[in-house]
Specification:
This protein has about 350 residues and is an alpha/beta fold. The protein has a single domain, classed as Alpha-Beta Barrel (TIM Barrel), CATH 3.20.20. Helix content is about 35%, strand content about 15%. It is built from ten helices and 13 strands. The strands form three sheets. Strands 1-2-3-4-5-6-8-13 form an eight-stranded parallel barrel, surrounded by six helices. The protein has a three-stranded antiparallel β-sheet with strand order 7-11-10, with helices on one face. The chain has a two-stranded parallel ribbon with strand order 9-12. β4, α4 and β5 form a beta-alpha-beta unit. α2 runs parallel beside α3. The radius of gyration is 20 Å and the shape is globular. This is LLM class flavin-dependent oxidoreductase.
Length: about 350
């Protein structure tokens, strides 16, 4: 059995074939798709965060709105770039969204990836300490967030406050118990997956990772997941960790599917450089008739290792079509693979 959700990058563009012409379109349709996904029986609605781009950027208002409109589906991010974040303010926003949803928030975070601007986090008022890199800064922000989410007081109270305080040091409010265990790290390498396990974060692995050994993408990703689980066990955490992988998967069941994705059937892994020094491998897409998809996906070692599968959706094609995409996988593919 697997949890199956969708992952949206939340693109919008004022072009003839886009169903999301504005930011408003994307936000409102994201809410409607999450509601439709819950009605279909999907398990998660996740959203990517990109700054300075015509994509979703401020996740907590969106997640709160979805939490208020739904009752069961997990709501989350995949992922938030911690270089841009004030971890205390983030803890307040995340706590509020989690309480509104009744404890359904699954918060995916990471050190970030190449963005639309050069050092965009500097415009948000952040910069690495002397001798640190931007990745170091992201991890320091993460350390603060994880500490604050434990719910322990740390701030000295005013001896003459406007309103009465509880005894002792004060914590960030609102506090949502259990959220600390629902933080995920988007790992791009085996080393960062191991680091996430040591800190007690769940693992979120996308369709991109550092090329470590030259094997096919799904084989490398499966090795990354096993390294994470080994590190988790060695760290002595008592709870079971969660692991998600994301994939572009399209069941070709009608003429629309074949028109949009019929040429994706010959997709394969790609290798390239995401910066001057990082060689990365990009996983293939899947697009075929359901019976063919079942055979292909059964051979994907990383999907087999994960407990959660996030289906990347082409959000610019609109709510109705993306609902169809999800329904096709849940109806024609998932049962045959014993995911349902």
């Amino acid at each position: 059995m697997k949890r199956i959700g969708f992952l949206s990058f939340g693109h919008w563009s004022d072009t003839p074939h886009s169903q999301t012409r504005t930011a408003s379109d994307t936000l409102l349709q994201s809410i409607e798709l999450a509601v439709a996904a819950e009605e279909l029986g999907a398990d998660g609605a996740y959203f990517r965060v990109h700054h300075f781009a015509r994509q979703l950027a401020s996740p907590f208002p969106l997640l709160s709105a979805i939490g208020a409109r739904t009752s069961r589906i997990e709501i989350g991010t995949g992922v938030i770039d911690m270089r841009y974040e004030n971890p205390l303010y983030m803890a307040e926003d995340a706590g509020a969204a989690d309480l509104i949803s009744g404890g359904r928030l699954q918060l995916g975070i990471s050190r970030g990836s190449p963005e639309q601007t050069i050092d965009g986090w500097r415009y948000f008022g952040y910069g690495p300490s002397e001798g640190d890199s931007d990745a170091d800064m992201a991890r320091k922000h993460t350390d603060v967030l994880l500490t604050v989410l434990q719910g322990k007081g740390f701030a000295e109270p005013n001896p003459r406050p406007m309103f009465p305080n509880p005894p002792g040091l004060l914590r960030v409010e609102p506090y949502s118990e259990g959220l600390r265990e629902r933080i995920w790290w988007g790992a791009g390498s085996n080393a960062t997956a191991t680091w996430a396990a040591e800190l007690g974060m769940n693992l979120m692995s996308s369709t991109l990772k550092d090329d470590e050994g030259g094997a096919p993408f799904h084989v490398q990703q499966a090795a990354q997941i096993r390294a994470f689980r080994e590190a988790w066990a060695e760290a002595g955490w008592e709870r079971e960790p969660r692991v998600s992988v994301s994939r572009s998967i399209f069941a070709l069941t009608d003429d629309r599917d074949r028109a949009y994705f019929g040429r994706e059937g010959d997709s394969s892994d790609h290798v390239g450089y995401i910066d001057a020094t990082t060689r990365a491998i990009f996983g293939r897409s899947y697009a075929a008739e359901p019976d063919v998809l079942v055979k292909q996906l059964a051979e994907d070692e990383a999907i087999a290792e994960a407990d959660t599968l996030l289906l990347t959706v082409p959000n610019q094609l609109g709510v109705d079509y993306n609902t169809h995409v999800l329904e096709s996988i849940l109806t024609h593919v998932a049962p045959a693979l014993a995911w349902r």
